Amino acid sequence: MTRSNLQRLPGLDTLRAAAIVAVMSYHLKSSLPESMAVVAQFGWMGVDLFFVLSGYLIGMQLLKPYASGDRPSIRSFYRRRAYRILPAYLLVLWIYLVFPAWRESPVLPPMAVFDVHGQSVLRRL
């Protein structure tokens, strides 16, 4: 076994998978059979569960050096987070810009007219 396998908690992975399934069932509730409608109503709980688990796991990464008597490095923590998050984020952003037909809604305006907060940049000019 490698070191990362020893620190992995399979129960948390199962809960995270259950949270993802709950959210997906909520978003697909119009396509699900009637018997699954009750389950789909509680998809919002999956979002809460996912955020709680993520907070726990990220907090555990940040506080792990304290357990061994070291001082945590905020810089290395954020560097690891950036290496984990930025590739997927940039890929989605690239797909959004290159393939506008794949956007969630065909009536969304081009990305260039929005800033980070969803406010129209052109309106401010």
How would you describe what is shown here?
- The chain is mainly α and 125 residues long.
- It has six helices and no strands.
- The longest helix has 25 residues, at 43-67.
Question: In summary, what is this structure?
Answer:
With 125 residues, this protein is mostly helical. It has helices spanning 3-7, 10-27, 37-40, 43-67, 74-98, 121-124.
Count of individual helical segments: 6
Number of strands: 0
Strand content: under 5%
Order of helices and strands: HHHHHH
Note the main sheet: none
Radius of gyration: 20 Å
* Low-confidence region ranges: 1-6
What is the distance, rounded to the nearest whole angstrom, between the alpha carbons of the first and last residues? 59 Å
Fraction of helical residues: 55-70%
Let me know the average pLDDT: 78
Shape: flat
Counting helices, strands and paired strands, the structural category is mainly alpha
What's the layout of helices and strands?
Layout: H1 3-7, H2 10-27, H3 37-40, H4 43-67, H5 74-98, H6 121-124
Helix pairs in contact: 2-4
Keywords:
single chain, mainly alpha, 0% strand, disordered N terminus
